């Protein structure tokens, strides 16, 4: 099956007719449709599908004569993949490009007559974006033991539905979530292909890159609690308006990021009760901050929180602030990176090294498994937006690069 056919079969799922962006949130009907697509695509290729305890999907191409999962002395697997969920109104490529390219790479390996000598897996990790429950890379974090299962079960979406409730409603037992050391111990390498979320490759004139490192990054929630009041009659002096320290936090984020060569964004905010003609009772905001190193990240977050606290105190507003998910700096496994570089060079595929400010399951798994990434050129660099794009020729180059790497890692 061609890449285009596979790609187009996934494209309609969860696309919003108005924005053209994707709303694929975990444990929803759209998520179920993505899971069915994954299972179908795996079945069409005679791959063995399983859902792990954390709701991550796996499709296995077992080598001929392989004794089966967990067999003593069995060769460690090579896994590729990404995620199928999206941010609200996200693009088509962030996540799905890695999963579709993985199936397409299996097709290409078979066309080339390659057979794996160790298990080759395709993974689709659940809730990578944290778009419903707020914690980024939730599925891989649970798998790797990077979040406490009880905390994860209690995470709630905007409507107050907990992860445990949402999983159970979708037919998945939430009591089983948590680290799976046996599954991770069976994985020898994870290589994630992802659309580039910047435009370095456009400037470098290359279709693919090898990931070098991920900036440390995280999310912090800020709840400003004031006193609801009448917009027309409450004097300015009497108000305790949570919107004002919130506004100070937005400006402080921009200032701190600019001052320290970092990124800081408040892209999500809710105001309660949300009346046009009332001072809000509460404003909740989410700060996303990223920096080239841990110290810079801490400095940026420290400055934003200090500005928010000072403004809150000045307006008689209470502020509760804390991290929701934080991922330390990741430098991808050097041996694996070099192996990718030499197998691509052997095939004449230019692939510069690129750092990124975007988070990935590969970044979480890197703490437990040798991990590497491939990026596919994004001509505008725009991502987390319906305008996210990669040209078909570059997607095809990505599949060839991934197949080359998988052939080297799994078939020799
Ligand atoms: C994931 O795409 C992230 O970087 O937030
Ligand atoms: Mn993303
Ligand atoms: Mn992604």
Question: Would you mind describing this structure in some detail?
Answer:
With 412 residues, the protein is α/β, with parallel strands linked by helices. 35% of the residues lie in helices and 22% in strands. It has 13 helices and 15 strands. It is globular and about 80 Å long. The two termini are 25 Å apart. The site of glyoxylic acid has 4 residues, from loops.
Largest sheet: 9 strands, mixed
* Mean pLDDT score: 97
Q: Count of helices?
A: 13
**Quaternary assembly:** single chain
Bound molecules: glyoxylic acid, manganese (II) ion
Strand proportion, as a percent range, falls in 15-25%
Structural class of the helices, strands and pairings? Answer: alpha/beta
Topology:
Blueprint: H1 3-10, H2 29-43, E1 48-51, E2 57-61, E3 77-83, H3 96-111, E4 120-125, H4 138-144, H5 149-154, H6 163-169, H7 181-185, E5 187-195, H8 200-204, E6 208-214, E7 217-225, E8 229-230, H9 243-260, E9 263-272, E10 278-279, E11 282-290, H10 294-314, E12 318-327, E13 330-331, H11 334-346, E14 353-356, H12 361-365, E15 371-376, H13 392-410
Parallel strand pairs: 3-4, 3-5, 5-15, 6-14
Antiparallel strand pairs: 1-2, 2-4, 6-13, 6-15, 7-11, 7-12, 8-10, 9-11
Helix pairs in contact: 1-3, 3-13, 9-10, 11-13
Briefly summarize what is shown.
With 412 residues, the protein is an alpha/beta fold. The protein has 13 helices and 15 strands. The radius of gyration is 22 Å and the shape is globular.
Features:
single chain, about 400 residues, alpha/beta, 9-stranded mixed beta sheet, 4-stranded antiparallel beta sheet, 13 helices, globular, binds glyoxylic acid, binds manganese (II) ion
